[in-house]
Write a structure and sequence with these properties.
Number of strands: 2
Structural class: mainly alpha
Number of helices: 24
Largest sheet: 2 strands, antiparallel
Oligomer: single chain
Radius of gyration: 24 Å
Strand order of the largest sheet: 1-2
Length: 526
């Protein structure tokens, strides 16, 4: 941990950075290479993972009928759009990478922000990435083991290879990473478009029994308010990832325009795809068949595609591969932002002198995910902290309201009516209270895991009189990591880098590792 927050780089709003230039001090900066198409790819690619292909039955089995399930999907999409609208205002008002972590820290203080970061670093992103990578492995290896399950060791080994390959891509170039994301997002949208088109063909042939109102709302089990609330919770989790673009704000080309525009394009698109894919599924399968299937899209393909049914498992594999890439790309920026603010080791706030990518943060993300692959308890951990992740969505949106009253004159390129965050918070509170009521033990353990970050914050961040031997050890480890990864701190403004003793220390820390690094390692990438 560092003794205090590092000075922020001048990435936001700088024309120099928009061109990806280096500073006059010889520093480097994150490149602004994410355009509108790639921004949409990040949002869509992170929301649409394997769930819509494999098990969209979580909503249906709790909604108790096809009609109610479709209504839940539509309402969930609308609420997600409202939450994304709130994040769009926060993203252009506080134009920092790091997403809700940065917003919570700036609005509610360092401890609240650190707890958001702590739970993300400790559990959320490593476990999610590990599960997505294992799903990819399962669909790649399943054709090789048609009569049995693939061996567990083989699944984990292939998942590790997937993670290492994509970490290398992300370390090499922001452009490469965004191209991979664009390509695989397009692939999964094409696969879903095929499902939707086949559903339309089925409807034209008259196969829409479960879409007729009399049948659509015929319950296959008794309606229950608690189960319907659980259906909304499942729908909300299925839409997770809509806030990931806010993690990379400083790398967006013209973020004041492209951040809200990407949100306004992507969220309705995902809602449309989710609703119509589920409509397509029930044209070929009864609710009972859908609930019994462990891979709905595969069963759907076997019924309608015949010899071409292999398209569906390949589509799932491609979708999860793109999901791993998107999660690595965005989560590493969260860790980068946390280190820059002094909440994680300062090495994670450095970027490569030539490639301008946050290599230490990416390697840290990859390593933590590989460690999760070695444990069998990751699914349990996801259940424990899913509640906490959703908790911070509401805290962040509440912060938008707080900011309106505490800083009413703050510049807001986008300013939405406060009725929207209020609507979101009412829905959020309903789901949160229901979660606490239905699974108090799971939610309590999740809160306990989060609160383990409190002593870590006070010892690692707040306590600024650490022993000199500890500081020397940290400095030495940082220096070794800096040499190994060939990284430096991103450029800061000249005023901040030349003010007083702290400014001199920051200038020295940000200087290239050698004269050659400063003169010869710069490229057109930076």
């Amino acid at each position: 941990m560092t003794d205090g927050p590092r000075q922020r780089s001048s990435t936001a709003g700088s024309a120099k950075d928009a061109a990806g230039d280096t500073s006059s001090e010889g520093g480097v900066a994150l490149k602004k290479e994410i355009g509108l198409v790639s921004a949409c790819g990040i949002i869509v690619g992170n929301i649409i993972g394997s769930g819509i292909f494999v098990s969209p039955k979580g909503v249906l089995e709790n909604a108790s009928s096809v009609g109610v399930a479709l209504i839940v999907w539509i309402i969930t999409g609308v609420i997600t759009a409202i939450g994304a609208l709130c994040y769009a205002e926060l993203g252009v008002t506080i134009p920092k990478s790091g997403g809700d972590y940065s917003y919570v820290k700036d609005i509610f203080g360092g401890l609240a922000g650190f707890l958001r970061l702590w739970i993300a670093v400790l559990v959320i992103y490593p476990t999610n990435q590990a599960v997505i990578a294992l799903t990819f492995s399962n669909y790649v290896l399943q054709p090789l083991f048609p009569t049995c399950f693939p061996p567990e060791s083989g699944l984990r080994l292939l998942a590790a290879v997937c993670l290492l390959l994509l970490t290398w891509v992300n370390c090499s170039s922001v452009r490469w990473a965004t191209r991979v994301q664009d390509m695989f997002t397009a692939g999964k949208l094409l696969a879903l478009a095929l499902i939707i088109i086949m559903g339309i063909v089925q409807i034209c042939k008259g196969d829409y029994y479960w879409l007729e109102p009399a049948n659509a709302f015929e319950p296959f089990q008794e309606y229950d308010v608690g189960l319907i609330a659980l259906a909304f919770l499942q729908g909300s989790f299925a839409s997770g990832g809509w806030n990931f673009l806010n993690y990379v704000t400083e790398e967006l080309v013209d973020p004041y325009v492209n951040l809200p525009r990407a949100i306004f394009i992507s969220i309705p698109l995902v809602t449309f795809v989710y609703v119509f894919a589920n409509i397509a599924y029930v044209t070929a399968m009864s609710p009972q068949e859908l609930l019994a299937s462990n891979a709905v899209a595969v069963t759907f393909g076997e019924k309608l595609l015949g010899v071409m049914s292999w398209i569906m498992p390949i589509s799932v594999a491609l979708s999860t591969f793109g999901g791993v890439n998107g999660s690595l790309f965005t989560s590493s920026r969260l860790f980068f932002a946390g280190a820059r603010e002094g909440h994680l080791p300062s090495l994670l706030a450095m970027i490569h002198v030539k490639r301008c990518t946050p290599i230490p943060a990416l390697l840290f993300t990859c390593l933590s995910t590989l460690l999760m692959l070695c444990t069998s308890d990751m699914y349990t951990l996801i259940n424990y902290v899913g509640f906490i992740n959703y908790l911070f969505y509401g805290v962040t949106v509440a912060g938008q309201i707080v900011l309106r009253f505490t800083q009413p004159d703050m510049h807001r390129p986008i300013k939405i009516s406060l009725i929207w965050p209020v609507i979101y918070l009412i829905f959020w509170a309903f789901l949160l209270i229901f979660s606490l009521y239905s699974e108090p033990l799971v939610c309590g353990i999740g809160l306990a895991i989060m609160l383990t970050g409190v002593p870590v914050y006070f010892l690692g961040v707040y306590w600024d009189k650490k022993p000199q031997c500890f500081n020397r050890f940290v400095d030495k480890m940082t220096y070794l990591g800096q040499k190994f990864c060939v990284v430096v701190y991103p450029a800061v403004t000249s005023s901040s880098s030349s003010s007083g003793e702290d400014g001199e220390e920051m200038k020295e820390a940000m200087s290239p590792l050698s004269k050659d690094d400063g003169d010869n390692h710069k490229s057109a990438d930076c």
